[in-house]
Amino acid sequence: MAGLKVVKEGGWCFLTPENTKKSLDFVLQDSGRRVLVPSGPKGLTDRYIGSAEERILLGSATRGTYDTIMDKWQELCSGLDLMENCKEIESRYREILNSYDGPRNLDDIRAKRFIDDVARLGETFEAESIVAPLLNRLGANAVSLSPVGLITGTDNPGDASILPDQKKKLRRRINELLETYHIVVLHGYYCSTRDGQTIVTLHRGGSDTTGSHAAAELGAALYENCSDGPIRRADPRVVKDAMQLEKITYEEALGLSHMGANILQHEAIKPCWDNGIPISVIDIFNPDRKTEILKYREPDKFDITGVTHRKGYVDITVRNLSSRLTSYNLLRQLGIHTRRDVYPSTSLLDVSIVIPGEKLTDRMIHDKLKHVIRHFRLHDNDIEVRYNISLISVIGKYMRDREAINARAASALASHGLSTSNIFQGGSEVGIHYGIQEATKDPIKAQSGVRAIYNEFFVDNFFGKVIEERKRELQKQNSI
User: Fold this and answer.
1) Each residue of 433-451: pLDDT tens digit?
2) Which of 137, 340, 387, 448 has a Cα at 20 to 30 A from 68?
């Protein structure tokens, strides 16, 4: 459909009745905004997951958790004159809570299925009981649409990925509805498995991916992702008043998002990238402040696009001279050779791999390393494991065309007393990643490093000036 826009509005957009009204006013300002993907009110997903876990382990959700959830819906429904819908929300929530009949074991598949069914309720109730009714009251002729049976995901409770839709079920259904309704309100964050009935939730922030998937399926002219601010060159929680980015490429957005920047989820970028659909990240409280994500942008005056960090990595180093010990063989024996979020490095004497640690328990690491020791016939002291590694990432499409990026970034880190344990750079030269050993789980050093690098590239260019001066001195010497 020509000119169709898909809009995803995040949890901030529906945190209060006032935010909700403002967010829906934004949608109605453009008749091309025909598909809306609302998140649940900010903070409720954690509460819903908590209530499901309490129901599994304790037999019922605690009064505190239950009341916190219902108080939020009471606040929204009361402020939006939708109190009848609040009764329906509570009735359905109780019904689903009471439906669990599995063991008191969070690892049981029945427990995982139940948690997913409860976790998605923020998105379900927001779409069905708040957004669609309110749009209809405003004369927009809207309909709520569940993704169950229309969007298929992998059977990974709590972390599903959307699968390709060969039958184009979602596109056909939305196009059918748009013949009758002006706006389709598509539930975000969850989908169903191949059986078309079993609910699974996506990764956290999965509504971003729902919106991107819908935009790609519909061939949208634009995917608008609305939250509490545009994309900045550094996290404003780390660098106060960090500069806003006006335009970035898909590649840059993916690099920043994957390494912890406060952007839409990295899995939400690729569907639009693959289909050439521009993304606009919009500050819902000031819609003129936005960042466009495009296939191409002109270079600007800055040498890098942004700097970010991500904590919680584990560094596994194996010291051995065996020709069998390559980074690929080690990754394969660890069972992570197909993952894209690992960072290997190799020398004549050792192989080192830096991997995200959030899903690795001490037991898992112990078992995997025992297998590696047996397979490569190593000694225990051939392996060193270091925890609490943070990665600082410098991202920029045009870094390959600029001089001394690594020298300036490394000098900025050194000037703040930070030494790097690893340095990684891919062949595309869009990102350079610096490993920093933290003293604790808190990324205090990484945040200091982000501020140092931001200051070098966007504020005072101290080391850049030093390098330029040194180059001029050498040129003078060579000309004599």
Assistant:
1) 999 999 999 999 999 999 9
2) 137
Within 8 A by CB and 6+ apart from 3, the residues are 32, 221
Q: What is the CATH T-level fold of the domain 5-294, as seen in this structure?
A: Carbamate kinase (3.40.1160)
Residue 363: strand, helix, or coil: helix
Residue 207: CB atoms within 10 A of its CB come to 30
- The average pLDDT across 83-101 equals 97
- Rounded to two decimals, what is the model's pTM? 0.91
Q: What is the CATH number of domain 306-472?
A: 3.30.2130.10
Cα 156 versus chain centre, distance: 17
For residue range 296-330, list pLDDT tens digits in order: 999 999 999 999 999 999 999 888 767 677 787 88
Averaged pLDDT of the chain: 93
Residue with tokens 């903070």: 43
Cβ pair 134, 82 in contact under 8 A: yes
DSSP annotation of 267: G
pLDDT of residue 1: 64
pLDDT, tens digit, for every residue of 36-67? 999 999 999 999 999 999 999 999 999 999 99
CB 327 within 8 A of CB 344: yes
Cβ atoms of 38 and 131 within 8 Å: the answer is yes
The ranges assigned to domains in the chain are 5-294, 306-472
One-letter identity of residue 233: R
- Distance, in Å, from the CA atom of 93 to the CA atom of 77, rounded to the nearest integer, reads 15
Average pLDDT, integer, range 139-152: 98
Buried b vs exposed e over 373-407: b needs ≥16 C-beta within 10 Å? beebebeeebbeebbbbbbbbbbbbbbeeeebbee
In sequence order, the β-bridge partners of residue 436 are: 390
Question: What is the DSSP annotation of 141-162?
Answer: -EEEE--TTTSBB-S-TTSB-B
